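Service request form, structural biology core

Requester: graduate student, group of Dr. S.
Request type: structure prediction, single chain
Budget code: on file
Notes: please return the result as structure tokens.

Sequence provided:
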Amino acid sequence: MSEQTSLSGYKDKIEWSLFLMRVGVFIVMFIWAIEKFVNPGHLIGNLEYFYLIDGIDNNIIYIGGVIHMIVVFAFLAGMWKRYTYGFMMVAHGLSTIVSWRQYTTDFNIVFYTAWPMLAACVALYILRDLDVKYTLKNPHNQA
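Core staff response, request fulfilled:
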């Protein structure tokens, strides 16, 4: 049996799995985007503590929130996969890596949950061509 034949039986399962991963990542990233509007001070504190960036005001956070929200919904729709899936992977990857102090000083389980989500983001990016369930169909929606 060829690899092509054996994988064809899994097409529907793969599509559902990728769709569910996309929805799961969307939920976290959507809440992360919403937080920029309801609690911009939290992100400002995170930028200062984790990224060593000072002097950001609420207006910058709100603009970032709008951009984040647009990308998050485009990601959910499966649009511009190379860019939206890539953004999700890089944004979450950066936030996971800059939290390194939390892994060495605190045993806070919440920070460890970032690693499986990062794995999901990487898998979605790598398999973006196969993630077709409930995506917007258009000729420019290539990975």
